[in-house]
Amino acid sequence: MSKKNEYNAIEKLAIIQELKAGQSSRVEVAKKHNISVTTLVKWRHRYELYGIEGLEIHSYTRSYSAELKLQAIQDYQSGEYSQY
């Protein structure tokens, strides 16, 4: 598959828009751009949640509070949200 951080945010957005256009399947779009379908789905999800900023490359490790982690677990267990 692709090398890590091969695409910048603008390129990722163009790929997501190509998928949204509906002329190709996820598999076809992923193969065309040499990425996995999982990566494509993650990009789309991050874009839907955070906009273009969600597609930016971050080279730092984020730390989260215990409260936020607990809330994430509870949200996931409720069945309303996915692990992403």
Q: Which labels suit this protein?
A:
55% helix, 0% strand, 84 residues, mainly alpha
What do these coordinates show?
With 84 residues, the protein is an all-alpha fold. The protein contains 4 helices and no strands. Helix 1 packs across helix 3 and helix 2 packs across helix 3. The longest helix has 14 residues.
Overall pLDDT level: 87
Unreliable stretches (pLDDT < 50, length at least 5) are none
> How helical, in percent, are the residues?
40-55%
Subunit organisation of the chains: single chain
Largest sheet: none
Q: Counting H and I runs of at least 4 residues, what is the number of helices?
A: 4
Query: Shape from CA axes?
Result: globular
Distance between the amino and carboxyl termini: 21 Å
E-strand count: 0
What percent strand?
A: under 5%
Gyration radius over CA: 15 Å
Order of helices and strands: HHHH
Structural class of the helices, strands and pairings? mainly alpha
